[in-house]
Amino acid sequence: MTLQKIQRAIVFTTSLIIASGLNAQKLKKGYPIKDRLISYKQITLTTDTSQLTEAERKCIVHLIKAAQHADNIFWMQTYMKKEDALKGIKDPDLKQFIKINYGPWDRLNNDAPFLDGIGSKTKGVNFYPDGFDPDQVMEDMKFRVFDPYTVVYYFNPKDAEKYQKMGQMPPPRERFPSLDGKEIEIESYSMVYQNELIPLTEELRAASEAIQDEDPDFAEYLTQRIDGLFTNDYVMSDISWLNLNSHLDIIIGPIENYEDKLTGSKTSFEAYVLVRDREWGKKLEKYVALLPQLQAGLPVEEKYKPELGANSVTEKEEPTTDEDGNIIEEGVEAVSEIIEIEGFPPVEKPEKPMSQLAVFDAIYYAGDCNSGSKTIAVNLPNHEVIQEYFGTRRSQLKNTMKAKFDEIVIPISQKVIHPSQRKKINFNSFFSNVMFHEVAHGLGIKNVIENPNQTVREALGATYSAIEECKADVLGLYMVTKLIDMKELDGDLEDYYVTFVASVYRSVRFGASSAHGKANMITYNTLIKSGCLENTSKGIKVDIPKMRTAIEGLAAELLHLQGDGDLAGVEKMLSERGKIGESLKAQLDILNAANIPVDIVFDQGIHTLGLDKYAEESE
Ligand SMILES: [Zn+2]
């Protein structure tokens, strides 16, 4: 198919939405847009550019341009093409607010629509057709329809006629009958978004060439990522990425599934352009080595905490055996077998484990990670088999974290935490809590105990993200507690706990439409119920020993829900504790009245970094 035809196909599929959008470019009457804008504090994303080589500067320019195309794709996934969404919007505030939200729904206010004539946001956004019911998908077709890298449509015979009249080929789609007699079609991301993917990959190719001589490993990863974007298969590039120790980095592609609130399976495009902070990275390495020990110490029965795979850094003491007691070689064969079952090419297990705790300055955010609440730490890749056999990289985005701490956590603590405990709040504790949150994603259990072929993610569906985020928060704090006991972590437990509570308020403000927001509501309500947060007239006082017990209890509860794949239990927890009650609402009102920012937005890009010269050269 030619590029032009593909573009028309995309316009065609989104034309219905655009038609309704064009009539609705005015702010909804009475929507407090000025207040909402104040809730985002603008900060400048930068790094020490004097440390960058000439080649790195050239490379960064191309990486940022690639990221901008990923941003365009996210617009199409969640709403419509960016230029169409902003067409006819005169009011600069409204324009800015639409950009922040990637559409007309207020992400940090439970997706409330703020444009005139716009209804509520559909759960499946543009991943699925309007009115799509996932329960009508035939059982044996689910793995295709819910593939993370396809868009779903309903077959409409009139579409084919229209293409015929235009003398065009209809887009290449697979078709499946559904239980309700409709016909479902799927089309791969590489086809649907081809008009953005072509320039995106050209930029990645140019970035790869720019850095080839200085950092051939990073250059190679970039070319593998290009292959992934065209084949919808990211296994090779993900594994190579885990092994990188490059100064520059980019995370780019369809990655997280937060935006698919219908089934939690479709992935959204995003990009982070990063510069590694090697000094901080070294400090963190030692915690990776402690992972197996921490997993073993989790407060649950053995079956809920299986031995870690390549996540663990130390050699396993006991050889792994199969059902008959035969020792399984922990080598290439075992890995390739699993990978083949999953339908991927065989990949050799690395000689040394690849799990990494790394620290970066983020210099560009695009797409999903730039919408709503900005991510300050990333644990990737998401693929469970890769995680199990090759590990994960937990990236701490230090400059963004520091900005959120200074602009949000500190002002919040001044309003809600008891004066006697305010001095306990510090960046070191905040940084560590977020870091251990990321580590904790790698702990616990990935597959349902009674049905090992099913992942916890599959068992819990759309509720998975919130529960997994809650698990990471709580197990992260559990680990902090253990490490202080073991004298492996400096500082006072009270610092970490009080800082944690202050940042719970920060995250609850993301609202129930955010997995992180919901996760923090569960944590908050559990802590309140356990009596470890005392609500005094001067603010919240944290009872450290009680909180220690409460955290342990919630950790066990979450690990049980996940290991049992207990969807009913999770839904019960979410309906009882995944919400904002009276006392929390009162405190949030105080924060809102004080105009404390909810989140940050970025002044970012080639110009912000002072790299215009390199952009002109690359034109
Ligand atoms: Zn997380």
Largest sheet: 5 strands, mixed
Bound molecules: zinc ion
Uncertain stretches of 5 or more adjacent residues: 1-24, 310-346
Provide the spatial order of strands within the biggest beta sheet.
7-8-9-11-10
Count of helix runs: 26
Which percent range describes the beta-strand content? 5-15%
Structural class: alpha+beta
* DSSP helix fraction: 40-55%
Question: Rg, please?
Answer: 24 Å
Q: Average pLDDT value? A: 87
Would you write up a description of this structure?
By secondary structure, the protein is α+β, with helices and mostly antiparallel strands. Among the domains are: 160 residues, no CATH class; 39 residues, no CATH class. It contains 26 helices and 14 strands. The strands form five sheets. It has a five-stranded mixed β-sheet with strand order 7-8-9-11-10. A hairpin with a 5-residue loop joins β5 and β6. The longest helix has 25 residues. The radius of gyration is 24 Å and the shape is globular. It starts with a helix and ends with a helix. The relative contact order is 0.12. The N terminus is likely disordered. The structure holds zinc ion (ZN). Zinc ion binds next to α18 and α20.
Task: Walk me through the topology.
Elements: H1 3-22, H2 33-38, E1 40-44, H3 54-78, H4 82-86, H5 92-101, E2 105-106, E3 112-113, H6 142-145, E4 150-154, H7 157-165, E5 174-177, E6 183-188, H8 189-192, H9 194-211, H10 216-231, H11 235-242, E7 248-256, E8 268-276, H12 278-289, H13 291-296, H14 332-341, E9 356-367, E10 377-380, H15 384-390, E11 393-397, H16 398-416, H17 419-422, H18 427-441, H19 456-460, H20 464-485, H21 493-508, H22 515-529, E12 533-536, E13 539-542, H23 544-563, H24 567-577, H25 582-593, E14 599-603, H26 612-618
Helix pairs in contact: 3-9, 3-26, 9-10, 10-11, 16-21, 18-20, 18-21, 20-21, 20-22, 20-23, 21-22, 22-24
Zinc ion binds at residues 437, 441, 469, 472.
